[in-house]
Specification:
34 strands; elongated; two-stranded antiparallel sheet; Double Stranded RNA Binding Domain; 22 helices
C-alpha cells in the first residue's frame, strides 16, 4: 500500500469519489495536493482535551467521551452506545448475524475490523511494532497496551477499590470480583465465568479441542499461553529472575510465588480455619478439605480426587505406567516424589531433622509423624470406639479390628491380612527372602524391624525402660515379658507367704531385683505347680486372703 495514501487516508475518505487522489507511484492521474492541504487547514478542536479533528462530526462523537453521552440504544437489551455503527455491530449479537467471513477458514464475524484482525492469524502479519523492545503485534490496541509495560502507565482505576489497570477493558472484568457477577455460562455443564475468554477456554475441556500446537514435539494445548510456557522447556528460557536471590523462572506466576518465600507473605486466608497460604492453587485445594469437593474423577474406576495431579498419578495404577526410573538400581516409580525418596536409600541422606531430639529422617512425612511422639498429638480418631492415633495409616489398620476385614491376601497359601506390610513380611516365609542385613556382622532378616533389634546386641543399647522397676530391655517384647513376670510375682505374693517361695525376694512388700531371682522363681513355680494350681482352683484362697490380711 502507498505510504502517501496511508498518511492521507482519513482526509481522502471525505473527498468525493470523482475527485479522489491517485497515487503518483502508480503513474495514474492524481489531483494536486492543494485540496488536501486546504482540508487539513480546517481543523476542529476539542475544548476539553485540545485534540483536533478534520470534521465536525468526528469532534461531536469525540466529545461524548467527556460528556458520557450515549445516544444510541439497543431495543433488545437497552445497552447504549456512543456511535451508531457500534450499535449496529452490537445488534448482531442478538440476531446472530455474522456477515463477514474469513476466506481461509470460513469463520464469521460481527464486524469487518474483527475479520481483518483474524486474517492476520493466517497470514502471520504483525504490522505494529514496539519501538522500545521491537516486539510486533497484529492489532494496534495490543501495541498500545504493551507499551504501558515499559512506561508503567496504568490510567484506568477501579472506583470501588482504587486498583489501577493499564487497559480500560480490564476494569469491567475486575469489578466482577466485587459484584460476584459471572455472566458467561457453559451450556454443557452450567459452570459460570467472569470473562468470555475463560468460557471459550473451558468449553475445550468438553470438546477436547487443543488448537495450539508445539512445532518442536507436536504436543497440543488448549490455550496459547500454555504453548508459550511449554516451548520454554525446549528452549530452556527462564525470563523471570528473582531480584533477591537471582533464581530464574520460566513463568512470572512462579516468580511471584517464589518471592513469598523471601517475604513470608501468605495472602490467601481460609475463613473457616484461619489457615493462610502463599499460593492461590494451594488455597483452592485446601478449601476442598472443608467442602469435601472432589471434582476430578477416574473414568476407569470412578474414584474421585480433590487435586488434578492426584488423578493423573492414580490412573497409572490402571495403566501400569512408571515413568520415573532410578539410575542407580533401575527401579521404577509412578511418582517423581517416590523416586526422590527412594534415592535416599542409596545415598543415606536424611534431610529432615527433629529440632527437639535431633533425629533425622529421609521423608518429611516421617518427621511430622515422629514429632507427635514429643507432642503426644493423636489427630486421627476412630469413629467406632473413639481411640486416637498419631498416624492415619494406623487408624485405617485399626478399623479392620472392628470390621474384621482382611483385604490383603497371600497368593501362595491364601492367608489374609489386615495390613499390606504384614502380607509383605509373610511372603518372605514362602520365598525365604531375607532382604534386611546387619552391616556389622552380615546376618540377614526377613523383617526390617528385626535388624534394628539385632543391632542392639552389638551396641548394647537398651532403649525400652520398665516403669515399675526401671530396668531397660533390648526390645518391646522383652519389656512386655518382664512386666508379665512382675505381675505374676505380685499375684503370687498376695496368695502365699515368702516362706512358700523364698526366691520371690520380697522386702517390705517391694520387689527386689526380679531379674536375678527370675530363674529360681520359675523353678519354684515348676516344683510347686500342682499345689499352686490346686490352691488357685480351691475356695481356700478366700480363707488364705482373710488370714493373710489379719496377720
Amino acid at each position: 500500500m502507498c505510504i502517501y495514501c496511508i498518511k492521507k487516508r482519513k482526509i481522502m475518505e471525505n473527498i468525493p469519489y470523482e475527485n479522489k487522489v491517485k497515487c503518483k507511484t502508480d503513474s495514474k492521474k492524481i489531483r494536486s495536493d492543494e485540496l488536501l492541504k486546504e482540508r487539513a487547514k480546517t481543523s476542529f478542536l476539542c475544548n476539553s482535551c485540545g485534540k483536533s479533528f478534520s470534521q465536525k462530526c468526528n469532534l461531536n462523537i469525540h466529545k461524548r467521551i467527556h460528556t458520557g453521552e450515549k445516544p444510541f440504544h439497543c431495543d433488545f437489551c437497552g445497552k447504549s452506545f456512543v456511535q451508531i455503527n457500534h450499535l449496529t455491530k452490537h445488534k448482531r449479537i442478538h440476531t446472530g448475524e455474522k456477515p463477514y467471513s474469513c476466506n481461509f477458514c470460513a469463520k464469521s464475524f460481527y464486524g469487518s475490523g474483527e475479520l481483518t484482525k483474524h486474517k492476520r492469524i493466517h497470514t502471520g502479519e504483525r504490522p505494529y511494532h514496539c519501538d522500545i523492545c521491537g516486539r510486533s503485534f497484529s492489532v494496534n490496541d495490543h501495541l498500545t497496551k504493551h507499551k504501558r509495560i515499559h512506561t508503567g502507565e496504568k490510567p484506568f482505576h477501579c472506583d470501588i477499590c482504587g486498583k489501577a489497570f493499564s487497559c480500560n477493558g480490564d476494569i469491567p472484568i475486575h469489578k466482577r470480583s466485587h459484584t460476584g457477577e459471572k455472566p458467561y455460562d457453559c451450556d454443557m455443564c452450567g459452570k459460570s465465568f467472569t470473562t468470555k475468554g475463560h468460557l471459550t477456554t473451558h468449553k475445550r475441556c468438553h470438546t477436547g479441542e487443543k488448537p495450539h500446537h508445539c512445532d518442536v514435539c507436536g504436543k497440543s494445548f488448549i490455550q496459547n499461553c500454555q504453548l508459550i510456557r511449554h516451548t520454554r522447556i525446549h528452549t530452556g528460557e527462564k525470563p523471570y529472575p528473582c531480584d533477591i536471590c537471582g533464581k530464574s523462572f520460566a513463568e512470572n506466576a512462579h516468580l511471584i510465588n517464589h518471592k513469598r518465600i523471601h517475604t513470608g507473605e501468605k495472602p490467601y486466608h481460609c475463613h473457616i480455619c484461619n489457615k493462610s497460604f502463599s499460593r492461590n492453587d494451594h488455597f483452592t485445594q485446601h478449601k476442598r478439605i472443608h467442602t469435601g469437593e472432589k471434582p476430578y474423577h477416574c473414568d476407569i474406576c470412578g474414584k474421585s480426587f480433590s487435586v488434578s495431579f492426584r488423578l493423573k498419578i492414580h490412573t497409572r495404577i490402571h495403566t501400569g505406567e512408571q515413568p520415573y526410573h532410578c539410575d542407580i538400581c533401575g527401579k521404577s516409580f509412578s511418582e517423581k516424589g517416590d523416586l526422590t525418596k527412594h534415592k535416599r536409600t542409596h545415598t543415606g541422606e536424611t534431610p529432615f531433622q527433629c529440632e527437639i531430639c535431633g533425629k533425622a529422617f529421609s521423608r518429611n512425612s516421617n518427621l511430622t509423624t515422629h514429632k507427635r511422639v514429643h507432642t503426644g498429638e493423636k489427630p486421627y480418631h476412630c469413629d467406632i470406639c473413639g481411640k486416637s492415633f498419631s498416624h492415619g495409616n494406623v487408624l485405617i489398620a485399626h478399623k479392620y479390628i472392628h470390621t474384621g476385614e482382611k483385604p490383603y491376601h497371600c497368593d501362595v497359601c491364601g492367608k489374609s491380612f489386615s495390613q499390606a506390610s504384614h502380607l509383605s513380611k509373610h511372603k518372605h516365609v514362602h520365598t525365604g527372602e531375607k532382604p534386611y542385613h546387619c552391616d556389622i556382622c552380615g546376618k540377614s532378616f526377613s523383617v526390617g524391624s528385626a535388624v534394628s533389634g539385632h543391632k542392639r546386641t552389638h551396641t548394647g543399647e537398651k532403649p525400652y525402660c520398665c516403669d515399675i522397676c526401671g530396668i531397660t530391655q533390648l526390645n518391646t517384647s522383652m519389656l512386655i515379658q518382664k512386666k508379665n513376670n512382675i505381675a505374676a510375682i505380685s499375684v503370687y505374693s498376695t496368695l502365699f507367704s515368702e516362706e512358700d517361695f523364698p526366691s520371690l525376694g520380697m522386702t517390705e512388700g517391694r520387689i527386689d531385683d526380679t531379674v536375678k531371682s527370675r530363674t529360681k522363681f520359675e523353678r519354684d513355680i515348676a516344683v510347686n505347680n500342682k499345689d499352686i494350681s490346686t490352691t488357685l482352683d480351691s475356695p481356700v484362697i478366700t480363707t488364705t486372703k482373710t488370714t493373710t490380711s489379719t496377720c
